[in-house]
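An instance as discussed:

___
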Amino acid sequence: MPRFSSRVEQISISGIREVFESAGEDAINLGIGQPDFPTPEHASQAAIDAIEAGQVDGYTSNKGIPALREAIATKHERDNGFTVDPSNVIATAGGSEALHLALEAHVERGQEVIFPDPGFVSYEALTHLAGGTPKPIGLREDLTMDPAAVKEAITEDTAAFVVCSPANPTGAVQRKEDMREFARIADTHDVLCLTDEVYEQIVFEGDHYSPMQFAETDSVVLVNACSKTYSMTGWRLGWVTASHERIERMLRVHQYAQACASAPAQYAGEAALTGPQRVVDQMVEAFEERRDILLDGLDDIGLETPTPKGAFYAMPKVPDGWVEEVIDRDVIVVPGEAFGERGSGHARISYATNQEMIKEALERMAEATRVVQ
């Protein structure tokens, strides 16, 4: 029997997916990061119009249709205060492919990639697939990543470090001075700062800042997507932007792994980015209300939970056996260790579902807590 590559043998099926796939049909799913809102109507209609006009029957440019890349550039100028050349954007199959392109293009075999622990499950797996060495680092008490810890972790073998704000799985939002310092570290230490900004619009307290706002060299690669902001997870549309030299290297990976992002999704994404943004505000308002219900309920149960300032996740400290007891009661949550060793003793709870479901889940969590305490 032919052997498998050592790279693929170093990764396993995501703990999130394992829990999700094991859920019963009637389970309350607080385990997956998927908004329960419909895609904005004007975005869906743009895809329908493009299909009916015969605009999606063939490949698009590898980088994506010009109108989408121009919309992404306009979005960054409007929301983030920096200029992006549309030619330096690649439309990808979600933020996940964008992360993959960035690591494949910048990590040599054996080089280190620093990322938060607990952190998004893809960072470690994609580092392995790129032949790199994962180097997770712990977080502050408020679950943000400390620039000083990143700086201390850098060695001559470091290729990149990953910043995620607002963060999955913690909901933490990095401060402006942190993002400025991350950019400075990348500039002065000749390492790549890979900034994952997929949740950038979902902020309840403070503001979102990007290291790209402060970088003085081309040391930052930015990943974003329509998935969370516009409730378009199934459309699989993200993007990566960076300097011309970095985009051209990532394009070499993209053209063979994917060729181009889905054409209908690109037309929908353009419409989402250029159309009315009030729908985003309404989703964020709903997420904040849900967050507060969840936090109040967890506090009543007696579970210590840092207040998430963005995204739609909370990460309470939980007793041994708590996750299993909750799942036995048909409420799906993800054990913290799925996001790294330092996630042990916690659980990730997604509140991207309606208030009634959250309230019912809290009642079942209270029952589970009484059993294990």
